[in-house]
Amino acid sequence: MRDFSGRLAVVTGAGTGMGRELALQLSADGCHVAFCDVSEENMAETLRLCGAAAPAGTQVTAHRCDVSDESQVLAFRDAILAEHDTDHVHLLFNNAGIAGAGSFLIDDRADWERVFGVCWYGVYYCARAFVPLLVASDAGHIVNTSSVNGFWASLGPGIAHTAYSSAKFAVKGFTEALINDLRIHAPHVGVSLVMPGHVGTSIGWNSRDVLGRAQPADMSADEVDQVRQRLKRQGLPAEELSDGQLRRGMEQRMRDFMDKAPCSAAEAATIILDGVRDGRWRILVGEDAKNLDERVRANPEGAYEPEFGSIIQR
């Protein structure tokens, strides 16, 4: 699918970040876009940006949908069919994701399952809902966003990262399994696995909103103490920091993650769309992703040793 003009793309998690940039670049190319998110405010801004960039006649629609809820996904699908007056779609970008609940052992089970639900079941439910519509088209393509944490389940020594990593491993396995399945049963539908490294997005703030957590400036004393204990487990001298310093430090960390990333959301979206145009099933986003992929493949047995993770963190 070299040309997206006149096609219909479905994009999840398009309120901010890579999802917004995918919707924006697709609509600018004359591709009709139906996107979803859980934030009405963020969706409105994405819709405004797409409307300003899209050529005349390009239809862009926004839909509120929590992709971890299959009933909402099915309602999202039905709304697209009605509003775009169609019985098929051409592109599905399973992009929605949140982070958090890193530890299977000590973090809240509901938070753990919420992260896993958005990052894995969101992909599964949307695939169940939209793949028949891709098969009904003359040419279709599924794009599933995993992560470097879909092949390296770590953020480095001292940091548990199980919910997000488990979900992203599931996305990777599912997508690779679809390659042969589609070749056998729907050869006109392609699939791509996206594995970004550090991309500048607002996932920190978004994840706290979805998990019902206060943003750093509004954290209670108990929530600040939980952060302090987590930092201490990582070997950091958190007991020396006041509550105010910890709040400001968390806020700055999330801001730096977005503003100082080696790859912007717009650059990531361009890499993804170029990969789809080229028909590549494996799309690594960012030089850090490529380097980490090479290092894990070269030394899989040592990938979770402290020395390996320390080098990655530097």
What does this protein structure show overall?
With 314 residues, the protein is of the alpha/beta class. The chain has 2 domains: 8-201 and 263-297, Rossmann fold, CATH 3.40.50.720; 214-260, no CATH class. The chain contains 11 helices and 9 strands. It has helices at 17-28, 40-53, 70-83, 109-135, 162-185, 203-210, 221-233, 243-259, 265-277, 287-298, 306-313; strands at 8-11, 32-37, 60-64, 91-94, 140-145, 189-196, 199-200, 263-264, 282-285. The strands form 2 sheets. Strands 3-2-1-4-5-6-9 form a 7-stranded parallel β-sheet, with helices on both faces. Strands 7-8 form a two-stranded parallel sheet. Helix 2 links the parallel strand 2 (32-37) and strand 3 (60-64). Helix 1 (17-28) runs parallel beside helix 2, helix 3 runs parallel beside helix 4 and helix 4 runs parallel beside helix 5. The radius of gyration is 20 Å and the shape is globular. The two termini are 39 Å apart. The mean pLDDT is 95.
